[in-house]
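Run: sequence + zinc ion -> complex structure.
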Amino acid sequence: MGDSPLTSHIIKHYTDGKSIGYIASVTGISEEEVLMRLRIFKSDSVQKLGNYYNDDIKKVIAKRDKNDVSRSQIAQELCMSVTFISNACKKFGDNLKKKAKFQNQYTEIDSEHDLKTCPDCDSKRVNEISGYINDHNTIGIYCLSCNGEYFRFMNEDKLYRLNYEFDEE
Ligand SMILES: [Zn+2]
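>> structure
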């Protein structure tokens, strides 16, 4: 299914930065099916060995980012963490344009939180995510209710909130 002509068509519009609603109207399917096909494409990008996404999905993400779709929106559309989106953009996108604000990408939050719920909105709709920030592995959650992302570095107890506003221009 991931390689079907319809999916290729959707991916083309998606990388061009078109909205999900627009893609649904030009392909004649529902927005839900557009999102479903995008997520299947994403799942198909997981390499057979190990749990890593291949470059196909990262390039799609980086191009959509370049076409002025916010990273938090892309994260929501693909059900992925903002960290993953940012790393894909860093690898395949224009990594110079956002360099200036790189220092402030996360802030420490004062909490002994176990991350079973969202520290901000208390929602239980959280996905566990692992990431990679400034050359260190991180472990944390992505909140499906408020789109917040929280993490700690593997080797320390402090809890941080990811500030992805810095990705917007
Ligand atoms: Zn939340």
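>> summary
Strands lie at 106-109, 126-133, 136-143, 149-153, 159-162. Confidence is low (pLDDT under 50) at residues 96-103.
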